Amino acid sequence: MTSLNNLAVYSDYFVAALLIGGALFMLVGSWGLAKLPDFYTRLHAPTKASTLGMGATLLGSLVWFSVQEESLHIHELVISIFLFLTAPVSAYMMGKAAIHRRRPMAEGTRNAEEAERAAERKGINDRDD
Amino acid sequence: MKRLLPMPWHSVMLIAVWLLLNGFSYGQLVLAVILAWLIPILTYPYVRGHAPVKKPLAMMTYSLRLLYDIVVANVDVARRVVLPNRYLKPGWLAYPLSMTEPFPVTLLASSVSLTPGTVSVEFSEDRTCLYIHVLHLEDEKELQAFIFKRYEQPLKEIFGC
What we know:
The structure holds 2 protein chains of 2 kinds.
Chain A: H1 2-35, H2 39-68, H3 75-100, H4 112-120
Helix pairs in contact in A: 1-2, 2-3
Chain B: H1 8-22, H2 26-47, H3 56-82, E1 91-96, H4 102-114, E2 118-123, E3 129-134, H5 140-159
Antiparallel strand pairs in B: 1-3, 2-3
Helix pairs in contact in B: 1-2, 3-5, 4-5
């Protein structure tokens, strides 16, 4: 019985660490959305930092409910897999829309001419340089 | 058989995911079986002719490595978000693709979006080139070699193309 109680105590610390870590990453992701210089750099913050934040939170939930109810809770794992599958697609759609509408880029963006090529959808073989 | 059950593995997956999400009961099992039978019939026309996975084991190691890379990339991006903007060197990369199969290319684009500070944004019309926005671009050649070695090469092996 004591070993089981110990498990519950340790899992509390573990879950707390996961929740705080996840919340921190989501905070950074949302802050990045506000502070990064242009549309394209802002795409990075929610696709990456928030994905990990969400993943950590879900893992915390998985451990918590598995220990509390003493049965394996797999929902959260499935949800995080769906998240990993969908985040790049929405980022791709937004990036594609931005590039074709020629949203302005932050000053000093390197290889900006590549973005122009992408907007015209030219391949490497029909370069004009 | 092919018409009634076009993608047996997908059907098994659907039943498993449905039961995992809803909890097991006989009612849910019946619903899962019905959905697992109907959804593949509806979606089969979209995936017909796609390159099949030739090496499922390599696919597993690829997924695990991707998971690890996602964590590393996340920490890296979080660090760059916290640092002031003046240290940021955003840039574009036209990544030359050496495969054309739509499904592996989609996986590559998604992997690139989830990992090293890059988001794939557009393909060229002839699909020879993937345009990538990089949050912090140091060296184009190095990044290109990294993506090829870590993602494109394994994907080519997995799908045998």
